[in-house]
Structure formats: C-alpha cells, structure tokens
Design a protein that fits this description.
Layout lengths: L8 E7 L8 E7 L10 E11 L1 H8 L12 E2 L3 E9 L10 E5 L10 E5 L4 E2 L6 H4 L2 H17 L7 E5 L4 H12 L3 E6 L4 H6 L3 E4 L4 H8 L4 E4 L3 H8 L6 E3 L3 H4 L8 H12 L7 E6 L3 H9 L6 E5 L1
Parallel strand pairs: 9-10, 9-12, 10-11, 12-13, 14-15
Antiparallel strand pairs: 1-2, 1-4, 3-5, 3-7, 3-15, 5-6, 6-8
Helix pairs in contact: 3-4, 3-9
Length: 309
C-alpha cells in the first residue's frame, strides 16, 4: 500500500493581487521542501524580517515590470533565520544563523524563506538577528549609494544632503556617510530632529522652508534622495555634484545594488565594531505583521521596523 503524501503548509503574510492594504493578509501556502532546495538557494526557518517602503510599492503594483512577483507572494525582501537546507555550492550549512535577501519571486514575511545563496551571510558575533535583517535592503542600499557617490567624485569632507534622513535607508546613510568622513545635512520631519542629530547629521525640518535652511548651512556636494517628487526636483538645483535617488531613479540617477556576501559581511562588521547601528524603533510579532506594514506605510516610521517569528 502506498503511503499517503503529506503536504506541509505554512503561513505567509502576503498578497494575491496588487492593491492597497486591503489585499494583504495571512495566507496558507505550501511550505518549501528542504529536500529540494533550488540551485544557489538557502532555505531558512525565519527568525526576523524587516519592513521597507519598497515592500509596499511592490504590493501596490508600482514596481510591475521591474520586480518579479508570483501570486500569492509574501511581502518583504530581507530576513535572518536558521538554515534548514542549502545548495552545497553556497558554502552555507544547516544549523547556521544567516541573513540575506530573498530569492526572486519570493518574500520574507513567511515562516520559511528562500535566501539567495550569493548574499546569504553568517550572522557574526556582536550582531543581533534583527540588526542583520536590516542589512540587505536598508543598510546595503545606503552603502551602495555612498560607494557610487565616491566613484562619481564625492571627496572625503564633502557635504551630503540626505532627503528622508530619519527612515530605514536614510538613517543608515547618515551614519555610514559620517563613518567615511563626510559632513551630513539630513532633511526629515520636525519630530525626528533629535534622532537625526544623534546620528551625526545637521537636521533640517521638512516643509516649506527646508531649502533656505539648507542654503544657510552651506554648499551641498552630493544628494541622497529617498523622498522623490518636488523635494528631489528642488534638491537637484542645489548641487553640481552627484545625485542618487531611490525614490525616482530616472530623475536622480539610480543605484546599482551589490547583494553579495562580501558586502553584507562588511556591513555586519561595521555594526559589530560600533561604527553604525540600525535603529529598530518598532518590533512586532508575526501575527501583527499588518501593524508592522502600517507603521511604515503611514510615512512616519523612525529608523527600522521589524517582524519577529
């Protein structure tokens, strides 16, 4: 007699169609099989994931054509967890605590997650899983922007204007820019004054007068934009130096991401030695994933918001 096939299921917080918050929710889907891990992948039992504004843009359909989606799909793009199985070519073994970015067409708001083996990185001593889960998207994007700005001529001691300095990528960009010898002017809401200043930047309150305030502070040698819209357009006229925009790549110049173990290990090392710290302002249990997403979607999140399993 043939033994019955037992289909293992898991929960994800995801979406089955594009739209607003109403299309997202908990879904019961087939769990990945540790015995059949795709080439170049690492399967982990999730420990923590983080929320990024880009996750909301993917759910809403704003990234159609540039970001592959397979419905139903979990939200999220970065996670930390314990390895269940891995393609041997990755050099990652079961039982290891790792972090990284998810495999294309998969998400991280799930009990089990596929990480791309190229970026899957062991969590080093001195770094918490929650901090590690903030590296692939937020810290990694900030680091890649700064790498490109320096390549484009930004010199040590120059002044970087960060638009959206209090958010996930922004607060990492401020700290990392300061770590490599830059001066930083950070535009963010007035309620984020103390936070932005604590990171080493000169805070400028967002609003009608932000440009005049920046001009009073001094020349701008480069711009990191995380806001887009008219704010970015205005900022383009404030510098002859390089500009990189996450919010509007076609306007300010995009960012070439380096999602590799080498880059992620470098950033983890900077956290471990105290050079910078992902500031986690809110931590939600997985059953409250919707609240975590809402906290970021309302536009007022401070630093990073994470979801723990």
């Amino acid at each position: 007699m043939t033994a019955p096939v037992i289909l293992v299921r898991m929960r994800i917080f995801g979406f089955g169609s594009y739209g607003g918050p109403e299309v997202a929710g908990f879904l019961d889907v087939p769990a990945p099989d540790p015995a059949t891990v795709p080439d170049g992948s690492v399967l982990v039992a999730s420990t923590v994931t983080s929320v990024n504004p880009a996750d909301i843009k993917v759910r809403s359909g704003e990234r159609q054509g540039s970001f592959p989606v397979r419905f139903p799909m979990a939200m999220g793009r970065e996670a930390a967890g314990i390895v269940l199985a891995a393609d041997p070519v990755t050099g990652i073994a079961p039982g290891m605590a790792v972090f990284g970015n998810t495999v294309s067409r998969t998400g991280s708001f799930a009990e089990k997650v596929y990480l791309d083996g190229v970026g899957a990185t062991p969590v080093p001593e001195g770094v918490t899983p929650a901090q590690a889960a903030c590296i692939p998207v937020s810290a990694g994007t900030a680091w890649d922007i700064l790498n490109e700005l320096r390549h484009d001529g930004l010199e040590t001691g120059g002044t970087v204007l960060v638009l959206g300095a209090g958010g996930g990528v922004g607060h990492c960009a401020v700290q990392l820019a300061r770590a490599i010898g830059m001066e930083v002017t950070g535009v963010a809401g007035a309620d984020k004054h103390d936070f932005v200043e604590s990171l080493g930047a000169t805070h400028v309150a967002a609003g009608d007068d932000w440009m005049s305030t920046v001009n009073e502070i001094g020349p701008v040698d480069a711009v990191i934009d995380l806001v887009g819209g008219e704010v970015l357009v205005d900022a383009l006229g404030m510098t002859a130096g390089p500009v990189r925009s996450v919010a509007a790549p076609s306007v300010g110049g995009g960012v070439t991401r380096r999602r590799s173990r080498t880059v992620f290990s470098e950033l983890a090392g900077l956290i471990a030695d105290g050079t910078f710290t992902p500031h986690i302002s809110a931590s939600f249990p997985f059953p409250r994933a919707a609240d975590a997403v809402a906290a970021v979607e309302n536009g007022h999140a401070l630093g990073k918001t994470v979801v723990r399993f």
